[in-house]
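Revision sheet: structure tokens.
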Amino acid sequence: MKINKKALVLLSTAHLVTDLNQGALPALLPFFKEALNLSYTTAGAILLSANLTSSIIQPVFGHLSDKKPIGWFLPLAPLVACLGMSLAGLISNYSLLLLCVIVSGIGIAIFHPEGFKTAHFFTGQKKATGMSIFAVGGNLGIALGPIWALLLVTSLGLRGTLAMIVPGILIGVVLLFNISNLSAPVQTAHQVAEKEEKRPLTKSQKWTFFLLVSIATFRAWTHFGLATYIPFYYINYLKGNPLYAGKLVSTFLISGAVGTLIGAPIADRWGHKKILQISLLLSFPFLLLFYYSSGFISFILLGIAGMVLISSFALTTVMGQTVLPQHLGMASGMMVGFTMSAGGIGVTLLGVIADTWGVPMAMNTIMVLPLIAFVLSLVLKYPLKLKGEG
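Predicted:
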């Protein structure tokens, strides 16, 4: 079976629209803080609420999806995600603002397991390549979210967030008209699975999946750590230009999206585990060189580091789905939602390191994280030969 690019591009567009909201929230926080006269702690609680709802509960929706196909989640989720964020700028009450952020987070949490699971059935033989088309939508959504939000708010004021509902409505309508085609292979797979004997997970499946989740968590920790601490390092520690720091973060995120598309076809050709290991190992020297560089060369080195590090984003999800073929929704929710949440929590630990030993030590810690993930990959048995396979 060949890759169905039309279906994957449609799902990827929905992924982009959904994750625009995830990328927009950090950029909107200073505006919420000023409008509602919030402290840094209460402003931070907004991000925590978003993280808990958009990421940690993803495996729950994945579990529901594995029990029964829920195709209507696909058009509903981007709409809910955009609705919550669009109303956030109209709110003058902190509790209601938290509610809006939680609603948006639930929309994001609903979309990812169902989206990754549905995309799986359109990837054909080249699983990583096909999944990268879907995954890059989310990468771009998070990277473009701040630009989209700031454009609306600086042009129209905080109430400009209301315009964020527009892409949600548009993609929701498009998905609604295509829902039967998108859901058909998922329904068929569920019908086949119901006739098959339900086998408990083996110890090797559980151990391999645990290692994959751990590896993806260390990568997410590196990813979020860099996005958070590059501004701290350049603005607070080096007393540099905030705009320069912002451009560095954008370079890192956009290069990561490019890396997602480039790394997947190579992985399908050379082997999933091999490319995962190479990406983790190569991240370290490029991050080290970036840390000791300056000027234009910093952008080049950070761009390469982002491309290499994030190139395995779609790949680890495919590997997780391959290890748990009867639990595609749960595997997707864990590999994406849980690992991103755990990576986000890891950034809090970096804050403790920065407060105790300084921002440079936090940056040095971030650079070592891919090496820890690489060591874990050395004991990873993949692909597993599952019972019932030839």
